[in-house]
């Protein structure tokens, strides 16, 4: 029997950011100290568990770029794309990006809520599965859902999604 190729999707919500100051665009919000600490810790945890994406697609919003930069200290990835799409699109836009990916390997999307949470739920619930109690409590900043999609020749709608892991920052 031939092994079914698989696509691993890492869905990362950016780390905690400062509140927007008057006159500052939401797009330009930076990480706060806790967010920087959480992002570095997640990068180290992922490296220790050998959870390394082949490719990263990151929102071009400042807090997402900073989150990825801090993870990249422990997880160097050469194929990184920054796009405003993950800032302006809803869940459908996130799913369109996933739909257009190659059938094997792994990719990390670094984006925003509620799109990260909604995309995770859509992928996992499509097959009648559950997202689990952990995810039903919400998707924290710097939370990471790792989802495996089995390949199906008939496209995205025929893929079976399973939650490989859900990582979140340690509560302070």
UniProtKB/TrEMBL annotation:
Pfam families cross-referenced by the UniProt entry: His_Phos_1
PANTHER family per the UniProt record, alphabetical: OS09G0287300 PROTEIN
Protein name, as recorded: Histidine phosphatase family protein
């Amino acid at each position: 029997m031939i092994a079914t190729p698989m696509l691993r999707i890492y869905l990362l919500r950016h780390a905690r950011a400062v509140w927007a100051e008057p006159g500052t665009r939401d797009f330009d919000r930076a990480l706060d100290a806790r967010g920087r600490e959480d992002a570095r810790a997640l990068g180290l945890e992922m490296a220790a568990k050998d959870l390394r994406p082949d490719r990263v697609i990151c929102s071009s919003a400042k807090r997402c770029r900073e989150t990825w930069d801090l993870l990249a200290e422990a997880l160097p990835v050469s194929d990184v794309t920054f796009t405003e799409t993950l800032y302006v699109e809803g869940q459908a836009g996130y799913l369109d990006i996933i739909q257009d990916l190659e059938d094997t390997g792994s990719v990390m999307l670094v984006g925003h809520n509620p799109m990260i949470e909604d995309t995770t739920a859509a992928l996992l619930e499509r097959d009648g599965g559950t997202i689990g109690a952990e995810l039903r409590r919400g998707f924290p900043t710097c939370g990471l859902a790792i989802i495996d999609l089995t390949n199906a020749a008939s496209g995205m709608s025929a893929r079976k999604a399973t939650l490989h892991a859900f990582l979140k920052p340690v509560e302070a």
